[in-house]
Amino acid sequence: MSCSEKNRGGGEGKYEKPVPRNSVEVDPNLVSQNGSITAPQLTIDESLLVDPKLLFIGSKIGEGAHGKVFEGRYGDRIVAIKVLHRGNNSEERASLESRFAREVTMMSRVKHENLVKFIGACKDPLMVIVTELLPGMSLRKYLVSVRPNQLNLHVTISYALDIARAMDCLHANGIIHRDLKPDNLLLTANQKSVKLADFGLAREETVTEMMTAETGTYRWMAPELYSTVTLRQGEKKHYNNKVDVYSFGIVLWELLTNRMPFEGMSNLQAAYAAAFKQERPGLPEDISPDLAFIIQSCWVEDPNMRPSFSQIIRLLNAFLFTLTPPSPSLPESDTSEGAVSNGTMTDLSVRTRSKFGFLRQLFAAKRTRNSQ
């Protein structure tokens, strides 16, 4: 389903290694009654498949845990070609082929100017996903290239809005990304916009109770994704799309500070600090109260207290209006969930106003205690 009339995107490999897994996650649909792994059924619509004879693979431009990404050509078009691993045994093959079919199906369903543009896929002789190639670099590489300098605040908010709109589109289609971080975001060549470029760990929200909690990368993962058991064994645990909101809060913090979250800690130390000590990256002293509120709302402990991406978009747009006069280039607010003025929500439901009023009081009290 389209969330926008525009279709733009790109593809690039990951640069941060994902969380190590103690066992391969197997789709429950592949397990027979006696517990054995059945032959995978790649239920991919034939209309989504491309002719492998027209694919030409060039130089490698990225690599992740589940495959490699190459610059290439499909017919006369320059594209990004993601070649996925098939696995070393029947259990791995069943899991990876199921993941491939799921990723292809989801990428073909959603279209938005800030999401990767899906072109097609082929499942034989290789599992391949073809997307539009963006000449820009990943957001992670860009941030590292300008470090220790911080991004211009207008640029930061513009990037944050791009990311929030992409995530809002996914959530509107019942998809949880589960691995939102700068490595999975691409800049366009002119560095004016950001595209979400990887659906490798995305899942439909209706099946979250069957998913392994230990997924994504610890520094960006919501604390409800793990416990002392999940850190050891990869326990299955139910969660909802608010895990993406938490990750967005960490990404927004990175955009503002241009620092690595939980710097000085290992991945496991960062996970422990966030989940069991309720620690979060420190906010800059000069940060705007409105931006501090958005970030802290995103990474609050209770997932149900976090805002939706549509609310985040409204809050970010409201803050942007305080920096510059309203511009026709900015999207108009949808009044179905409320309007914003001067950085605060003014026409939300009573329940939502109460929730965010409580959060503001909580954060104000915390700042008071810290200043004493």
Proportion in helices: 25-40%
User: How many β strands by DSSP?
Assistant: 11
User: Looking at this structure, what is the CATH superfamily of the largest domain?
Assistant: Transferase(Phosphotransferase) domain 1
Q: SS-based structural class? A: alpha+beta
Q: How far apart, in Å, are the first and last alpha carbons?
A: 52 Å
The H/E string reads: EEEHEEHHEEEEHHHHHEEH
Q: What low-confidence regions span 5 or more consecutive residues with pLDDT below 50?
A: 5-40, 206-216, 228-233, 329-350
Radius of gyration: 21 Å
The first-level CATH class of the largest domain is given as: Mainly Alpha
Q: Give the CATH architecture of the largest domain.
A: Orthogonal Bundle
Average pLDDT taken over every residue: 76
Q: What is the strand arrangement across the widest sheet? A: 1-2-3-5-4
Family: Belongs to the protein kinase superfamily.
Pfam family, one: PK_Tyr_Ser-Thr
Catalytic activity: L-threonyl-[protein] + ATP = O-phospho-L-threonyl-[protein] + ADP + H(+); L-seryl-[protein] + ATP = O-phospho-L-seryl-[protein] + ADP + H(+)
Protein name: Serine/threonine-protein kinase
